[in-house]
UniProtKB/TrEMBL annotation:
Keywords: Cell membrane, Lipoprotein, Membrane, Palmitate, Signal. This is Entericidin. Belongs to the EcnA/EcnB lipoprotein family. GO terms for biological process: response to toxic substance. GO terms for cellular component: membrane. The keyword NAD does not apply. It comes from Chromohalobacter japonicus.
Length: 42
């Protein structure tokens, strides 16, 4: 029982960390897109 709980918590941690990286990457892509629009407008 204890081993299963530890395994589940470990998987949840990995999923959470993966989600953070994905959101960070998307934010960087959006930022680059905004910079491109600003450069084109000026």
């Amino acid at each position: 029982m204890k081993r299963t709980t530890v395994a589940i918590l470990g998987l949840l941690l990995l999923v959470a960390l993966g989600g953070c990286n994905t959101i960070q990457g998307a934010g960087e892509d959006i930022e680059r897109g905004g910079e491109a629009v600003q450069d084109a407008a000026s």
